[in-house]
Amino acid sequence: MTARRIALALVLVAPAVGLLLSPWRPDGTLVYLGMLPAGLGLLVDRRAALTASLLTPASMLAATALRDLPLGAALFMLVLGAAVGLSAAVGWHGIGSLVGPLAAFALLGTPLVALPSGTVSAVSSPAAVATMTGLVAFGGLWTTFVGGVLARNVRGTGPRPVPRPASAYFGLTLGILAGLITYTVDDWTDARNRWWLLLTVFVMIQPYFTGTLRRAGSRVVDVLAGTVLAAVVAHTLDELPVVLVLVALALTGCAVRALLRSPFWVVPLFLTPAVVLLTSGGEDVLVAANVEHAVFIVAASLATVPILVMGRRIMAVKAPNTS
């Protein structure tokens, strides 16, 4: 990597790192989360990254308005899941696999923002919602423009477009699952990490359903390993929050490298502990969070396997040459 690229990379991560190492750490977490879909979009092209940087905060904003409306929330996630599936026709479903979970985070999770009055829930007031939306949008736009320069001559490695019939089945499956899980989990539990159910669904299900069952197994193993790693790191560095943040950022860098050069199963092994460390709080909260993550990941995997098997068989009949 040239000195110019190193300088650009430092500029790219500077806002998130600066906030994460300051008393406004919750704001840094939101900037960091906003950077993820846009960064994946850059693997496709700048237009995809720009779309992701705008769609992510818009989806999270819409989700906050539906938190007290279970049916509306379920319909919203159904539509969003279907849209992610249909976007596979142009190869943008990889971006959607991050936009969907972040909308679920705003809908079912407990995002925080740091305001002049202190750290509060991101859905506690219009000012808090606006702050959350603005920070996520900033992270995405910053990544799009600065990261776009950094990745100018990097060959894109994003998902390939799939035929429209395959994307239609993909969207139908993903939309129905996302809607049903959202409606069910609203009554089932009020755990702060219940949004991981939807994260698992968006990550596991793929067009053609090829390899999806393998992903279900690897997803369980990788996330459990990742959450254990997060707990170990949090226990070791609980009194050193600055180092904790730096470790989370280093893990994110490893996840990006794995996304470009390694099999899929390597990515969540690094990205999971990074997200857990930045969104779950201190060591005591992390212990409970790890248990919740394990339960939700396994539950989502078990719920989707029968539908995945059915979808795989349908696609084998409809498009045998793509299986």
From TrEMBL:
<keyword id="KW-0812">Transmembrane</keyword>
<feature type="transmembrane region" description="Helical">
    <location>
        <begin position="243"/>
        <end position="260"/>
    </location>
</feature>
<feature type="transmembrane region" description="Helical">
    <location>
        <begin position="294"/>
        <end position="311"/>
    </location>
</feature>
<protein>
    <recommendedName>
        <fullName>Integral membrane bound transporter domain-containing protein</fullName>
    </recommendedName>
</protein>
<feature type="transmembrane region" description="Helical">
    <location>
        <begin position="127"/>
        <end position="154"/>
    </location>
</feature>
<feature type="transmembrane region" description="Helical">
    <location>
        <begin position="166"/>
        <end position="183"/>
    </location>
</feature>
<keyword id="KW-0472">Membrane</keyword>
<feature type="transmembrane region" description="Helical">
    <location>
        <begin position="220"/>
        <end position="237"/>
    </location>
</feature>
<keyword id="KW-1133">Transmembrane helix</keyword>
<feature type="transmembrane region" description="Helical">
    <location>
        <begin position="72"/>
        <end position="91"/>
    </location>
</feature>
<dbReference type="GO" id="GO:0016020">
    <property type="term" value="C:membrane"/>
</dbReference>
<feature type="transmembrane region" description="Helical">
    <location>
        <begin position="265"/>
        <end position="282"/>
    </location>
</feature>
<feature type="transmembrane region" description="Helical">
    <location>
        <begin position="98"/>
        <end position="115"/>
    </location>
</feature>
<dbReference type="Pfam" id="PF13515">
    <property type="entry name" value="FUSC_2"/>
</dbReference>
<dbReference type="InterPro" id="IPR049453">
    <property type="entry name" value="Memb_transporter_dom"/>
</dbReference>
<feature type="transmembrane region" description="Helical">
    <location>
        <begin position="195"/>
        <end position="213"/>
    </location>
</feature>
<feature type="domain" description="Integral membrane bound transporter">
    <location>
        <begin position="188"/>
        <end position="283"/>
    </location>
</feature>
